Amino acid sequence: MIKLSDFSSIFIANWKLNGNIEFINEYYQKLLPNPNNCTIVCSPSIFLNRLKNNSNNIFSGAQDVSFYNEGAFTGELSAKMLSNENISFCLVGHSERRQHFKENNETINKKSINLIENNIIPIICVGETLQEKEKQMTKEILKKQINECSPINSNFENTIIAYEPIWAIGSGLTPTLEEIEEVHTFIKKIDTKYNKFKVLYGGSVKASNSGEINSLKNVDGCLVGGASLKVDEFNKIIS
Ligand code: PGA
């Protein structure tokens, strides 16, 4: 398994349901990763095998994994299958999957267990809705999500947490820098177990705000959606 503590920052491109062969060829010709950081491209699963072998600490990550290990589950991909293809990372519990595919903390926990057992690092996504933020429930929601999603076998070397306020995803809105730092500090203090976890920020990250967000003490990198589809923009974010 990759040693997360070797990297100062981790940057993830979440392509979601985007990309094709021409796009990939151009993207990887132009991608300029910073070799001190870990850069993970989470592509649609059909492209994982094609993208897996890269130098300069560029890794390929899946966007989801099956809850099940094998059996009659048409359309699914297991953690073992990802591991057979040397995939090192996998997003779990992205808010789009919670919203559209009925993921919940229990399934996210089980998926994360399966991934860790197969030497794949789960990137566990958590975040509050706008209504929850307005009711000042952010910390309560995050504590419940993190405690229920993080499996018993998780630790700072085998698991990443991504804080993505749902209202910030794809909206152009972000919390203030003070709010991000406060939430990240809170997450690392939920339990001593989380002190050394890498906690990434996601939600409307772009070249113009990534520097100040990533310079916050308890932010260990960024999870980037829309802006990661433009390789020049993503290069500025990871540089
Ligand atoms: P965004 O998406 O950067 O487009 O807000 C982030 C995400 O969904 O991971």
Q: Which band does the percent of strand residues land in?
A: 15-25%
How confident overall, as mean pLDDT? 96
Topology pattern, helix = H, strand = E:
EHEHEHEHHEHHEHEHEH
Radius of gyration: 16 Å
Helices, by number, come to: 10
Attached small molecules: 2-phosphoglycolic acid
Low-confidence stretches: none
CATH superfamily: Aldolase class I
How would the global form be characterised? globular
Largest sheet: 8 strands, parallel, barrel
Helix content: 25-40%
Give the topology:
Elements: E1 10-14, H1 21-30, E2 38-42, H2 48-51, E3 58-62, H3 79-84, E4 89-92, H4 95-100, H5 105-117, E5 121-126, H6 130-134, H7 138-149, E6 160-163, H8 177-189, E7 198-202, H9 207-214, E8 221-224, H10 231-238
Parallel strand pairs: 1-2, 1-8, 2-3, 3-4, 4-5, 5-6, 6-7, 7-8
Helix pairs in contact: 5-7, 9-10
The protein binds 2-phosphoglycolic acid.
